[in-house]
Amino acid sequence: MSEDAKPESVKRTIEIEEFTNVYLIHPVSSWLVPRLAARNITPNMVSLTGMLFGFLSGVAYHYYQNPMMAILGFVCMAIWHIMDGTDGQLARLTKTQSEFGKVLDGVCDYVTFISVYVGIALSLAIEINPNIWYVVVGAGLLHAIQSGAYELQRSEYDHWGHGKASAALPEIDEMIKDLDGKSILSYIFSQFHIGYVRMQRRFSGVDQRFQTALYDLLAENNDKQDAIRELYREIFAPGIKGWSIMCANYRSIAIFIACISGQPLYYFWYEIAVLTPILIYLVQKQRLLNQLFLLRVKEIL
Predict the structure, then answer these.
(1) Which CATH number characterizes residue 202's domain?
(2) Distance of alpha carbon 231 from its chain centroid, rounded?
């Protein structure tokens, strides 16, 4: 079966999901999706609703010294997570996926965390020192790199392991060509998307040579595509689950724990001093898995 012929699931790929999504976020999102579709609610409307709650979480966390406000911030972030899990499923169900929607979804995610970071930093700058902004901004930049790498690894798994065409890594040259004739707003969003994809490629450990080799394997062995994809899933699924430590869910939990304990600064150092070395390790591990896959795939050809 060719890549384009494979039907795409509405839900996310279960074998690489971490438990908070499997047992908490996505069941609620899956319950919401058909009900929103029946009311003609669009995925972009869901994304923007989630962003609103993300912004409110930043306002609440600004007053993290009050335990009730810290709890409110966590609840608002939980609602954002549900909306974030709903918009993509709704887009796939209603077949309304678009480049604009993907970029908007990403923008809403970052608006949420920027709001929370700024809300907390404004308090810390008064409590500790205005120079705390250097730590917060540094953590935020590393957050963008870590999250971008994680999301790209997930997309790569969906594309190569399950043949999902919509998960294919965009080509920068094609994205630049598509800029011609776009409206100002679409042009701005597309430029943001191009920059984001460049960043993902640079820091995710995705190897262009490995991609080319895998594409050739699938194209030249059409009768063994299922076996090749099954081997890909066998080798890479455990590794992708390891990348889940970079997911937004765990960051939200870490923010809440740091704030409710009265030490939100610890969260920013967690991103800098803990998650960054883990990212470096995961990238190196992914490259070793690439080599392992190319060795083992010879057994089924």
Answers:
(1) 1.20.120.1760
(2) 24
